[in-house]
Amino acid sequence: MGEPVDLPLENLKNKVLESYGAWYTVSPPEEGACKWLFAAAEYHRQSEKYVLVKKAKLWGAENNDYAYFFAVAQADADMVRDCCDYAISDALTKIRPHSEHMSSDITAIVMANSFTLKAKRELEKRSFHKNFLLTLHGWCDLRAVALELDTGKTLANRKGKGAAQLLAQIQMNL
Q1: Does the residue 2 lie in any domain?
Q2: How would DSSP label each residue in 11-62?
Q3: φ, ψ for residue 173 (rounded to 5)?
């Protein structure tokens, strides 16, 4: 597959990156990245609770989201699988589990004019979960999300339902 993307898809890509750019640090793909990747983004949140002074910390919690944005004119099952695999492998190199790490989400967002039926099934059934030190150092989950331009529908795996709603809102505001 992998043919050149068209103008409506380019407009959607720009709008999605603009929306994510408000909270995330968006960067272009690195050398040797997946061929459908057009951007990656990171979000980090640190929460802490103190007693009177900062030296007396009660607890700390760190949440991260590593988002990967992919686009192609026609998506098939192999493309969806490769995109999710790339997102998982790249994000796992960035996650640093420690006592204050609570969770990290790996979000793979695939945008295409159309998806084959096998591609839709692959995305919806795709899952990944990893615990770090029996969850004492947190965990990570895969959120796989897709937007089909021809129908305007969003698809997601079980963990990606919230991200799919956000993507649907972004598309409605085009």
Answers
A1: no
A2: HHHHHHHHHHHTTSEEEPPPTT--TTEEEEEEEEEEEEEEESEEEEEEEEEE
A3: -90, 10
* pLDDT one-digit tens code per residue, 137-164: 999 999 999 999 999 999 999 999 999 9
What whole-number distance in Å separates Cα of residue 4 and Cα of residue 14?
A: 16
Q: What is the CATH number of the domain that holds 115?
A: 3.40.1350
For 117, the domain range is: 7-43+63-95+102-131+141-172
Residue 171 confidence (pLDDT): 86
Name the amino acid, one letter, at 54: K
Query: For residue range 6-28, what is the model confidence (pLDDT) as tens digits?
Result: 668 888 899 999 999 999 999 99
Let me know if residue 24 belongs to a domain: yes
DSSP per-residue string spanning 78-139 = HHHHHHHHHHHHHHHHH----TTEEEEEEEEEEEEEEE-HHHHHHHHH---EEESTTTTT-E
What are φ and ψ of residue 139, in 5° steps?
-155, 170
Whole-prediction pTM value? 0.91
**Residue 1 domain-assigned (yes or no):** no
The total number of structural domains that make up the chain: 1
